[in-house]
Amino acid sequence: MYEGRLGARRQIGHRLNTEQVVARLSRHCAMTLPAVPHGDTVDDYLATVDPQAVQAIPQAMVRSVLEARRLEDFRLLGKYYLLTCDLSGHLYLGDRASEFTEGCLTQTTEDGRTLYYRPVCESKLVTRTGLALSIGSEFVENPPGLDPNQAQDSELPAAERLFPRVKAAFPGFQFCALLDARYCNETGFSLCEKNDWRFIITLKEGSLPSVWNEFQALRRMTLRNRRSVIQNDLRYEYAWVNDIAYAKRRLNVLECRWSDADKTAHLFVWVTDIRIDAENCDPLAQEGGRQRWRTENEGFRAQKHGGFEMKHAYAKRPTSAKNFYLLLQVAHILSQMLECYCKGKKAVKRAFGSLRNLGAAWLESLRRDPIPEAETLRRFLEEPIQIRLNSG
User: Fold this and answer.
1) What angle separates helix 355-368 from helix 19-29, to the nearest 10 degrees?
2) pLDDT digit string, tens, across residues 173-204
3) Through-space distance between the first and last CA atoms of the chain, rounded to whole angstroms
């Protein structure tokens, strides 16, 4: 359903319930199926499955790639895989009160209506070439019987639950967390520290006033902490200050300024626990801090608008809704690997017109191509294939 960009559960019956697909599934399942399972059957089954068991699937997929050392060239400073964490909505129920709203976060409108929604705190492994692979999901939901005067669940508490699970799923791998200004506080720093992760976190003027003010004062006095880099006809100006005191820790601050072709000025400031110097300031910014946007651009945006329809209500029951979301993450990882197998996004767009069309071509192949003989299929599956992850 997801790989074929069907966009809704009911399309399973319309587009997938053909003799050809039934025959394919029967072979895969080693049993005779009378039909492709109905979308409601899938929903009923997923309502019985522990989401943690489903989450182990995308984690195992990414872990196998890391263990095969296929992403080593994408590490920051040759050491750290890049991890992001951000909040996104995966199910919006509006004001339709039902038995499925328990645990939902709520919002009251000006006209007194109560809106129900289920966000998710999503962690992805990202690369500078555009991969955004799910490595952990934590659903943001209120406990049963929450007092209206109590605070609702939110991103930081969800991250506190999520990070240790990600750490446990990827033992032995070094990560650098790329986080937004919501984590620019002692809670965010401690979360990374507890999990032995380095961090690069967006620093805004109002986030840490003492750190911001000290950085602005010291940057004028440390003129040696400057570097200019010209890249793709753009000039990036870096300034940094190390060892700024904050509570019981020392923080390093990096500033990056540039103007684009339209003369529009840009400014990014990050706080990090990695010591900054003239050699690493450019990769910390370009291959580190700025890659946080991969979660939104190549991650959430692709899943919302690239045919996966993440915001569609594939299910309303909490457990099955979570499992549909997690299976979407599996499909998105497979889709990204297929794009790499087809020589990358540009090659896919030249051949198929768009990434969405690649999904449509896959669907038609599933529906119409002859089913190979068992021996032919066996030989094909035993033949190694190579997916090139271009690190250029």
Assistant:
1) 80
2) 999 999 999 999 999 999 999 999 999 999 99
3) 33
Residue range 268-287, pLDDT digits in tens: 999 999 999 999 999 999 99
Q: φ, ψ for residue 389 (rounded to 5)?
A: -100, 90
Average pLDDT over residues 259-266: 82
Is the pLDDT at 392 greater than 60? The verdict is no
At residue 53, what is the residue type? A
Check if the beta carbon of residue 31 is closer than 8 Å to that of residue 23. Answer: no
Residues 4 and 379: their CA atoms lie apart, in Å, by 25
Q: How far is it, in rounded angstroms, from Cα 55 to Cα 330? A: 9
Nearest to 34 by CA among 15, 44, 19, 46: 19
Asked if residue 285 lies in contact with residue 256, where contact means CB atoms within 8 angstroms, the answer is yes
Question: What's phi and psi for 138, nearest 5 deg?
Answer: -130, 120
* Separation of alpha carbons 261 and 282, rounded Å: 20
The shares of helix, strand and coil residues in the chain, as percent rounded to the nearest 5, are 40, 25, 35
* Digit-coded pLDDT (tens) for 354-390: 888 988 898 998 888 888 787 887 888 888 877 777 7
Report yes or no on whether pTM surpasses 0.90: yes
* Under 8 Å between Cβ of 112 and 120: no
